[in-house]
Sequence to fold (455 residues):
Amino acid sequence: MIQDRVIVIGGGLAGTEAAWQIAQAGVAVTLYEMRPIRTSPAHHTEELAELVCSNSFGANNSDRAAGLLHEELRRLGSRIIATADYHSVPAGGALAVDRGVFSSDLTRTLASHPLIELKRGEITEIPQDSIVVLATGPLTSPQLTEDLQKFTGMEYMSFFDAASPIIVGESIDREVAFLASRYDKGEAAYLNCPMNKEQYLNFQQELSKAEQAELKDFERETAKFFEGCLPIEELAQRGEDTMRYGPLKPVGLFDSRLGDFRALENKGKRPYAVVQLRQEDKAGQLWNMVGFQTNLRWGEQKRVFKLIPGLENAEFVRMGVMHRNTFINSPQLLEPTLQFKSKKTILAAGQLVGTEGYTAAAAGGWLAGTNAARLALGQKPLSMPETTMMGALFDFISSASPKHFQPMPPNFGIIPPLPTKVKNKRERYGQYRDRSFADLATWKQSLQPELATIN
Fold:
């Protein structure tokens, strides 16, 4: 499909990066941003790529997940990361920016590009006869959200992100946690962390008094509709046994290492309470804490959840969250190229697809923009090597379980394992980095001269 103009909807980090990559490929692009014609409850300016939360893009060292993603994007010619580097401010080991200057610089840069037309105004329907990149973010307007629901055929999308923490499997103590299904039915698909009465009561008390994060006004309005998805700390506050008759119920769960479950049941040997972990990825490297959606501050989550037997040394790749966040069920809807399965000329990027963090949004914008340009030029869309952080992230959001899909930040838990197991975490992450750089270089070389614009 050859077209002379691509449409990008949304002027956040993903949309800004997408528009730049499209234009750099020699394709004209119209970038729509609804601000200031229509405002959002989170933004304060009309600038492109406004950083609405922190001014930090996360750790900058390439043996950290965010830092590896930064470096991959540098090697791919990301405008967002180049501008962040130029306007960086001291922040220890993190990449942080002067946010006002950062956003205004990007706005001027895109507005002055001869192939980019910046239009201010709200788009309420997805254009069906053009190549389109949807990058409207977690606060997609109600009208466009309604049209997106019609387009995807989904009656429900998540408008309030109530997600449980995700833990690296290697950090779970398998001497304590046991693999089992309830009443030994079907495949043993859950790791179970058993508690005796003393452990449970201590956990319940600490959870009840842990400090919560404060919701913004517009998030608090949304949260009232989710009585059926209560934070775990609220359940703890409702009484000593509430969790034991809810997500921590021990009924039918027995450690087969101690004997047959029927014999253990007859002897009353089941745990007093059980925290269940569900496999999050196809390789079994990540595990989700079932029923642990939470609004606790992140430091409090780590403190309290490490009281659970078997999780004393847990490594969290995503903390539990509860906030306003529109995102689509990407495993059901998207290809790893970020194209919609049902209509390949429409792509999506940013938090809308279920990635978390500034750098992940830029990465999605890079891939969606690159592929939109390639479609416009009649070329085949690209998917990234899964051994890179970018490739692993987009493979995850397009292949995770649709039933349990929740947004995911960049982390080493989603990258395919090394050929030889490395116990030392820093060394293991360093080898992930080295493999990523080597495979990215090979991938780029295989695509030349198609990617001549990539530095």
Remarks:
- The chain has a mean pLDDT of 87.
- The chain is about 35% helix and 15% strand.
- The chain has two domains: 5-157+328-447, 166-317.
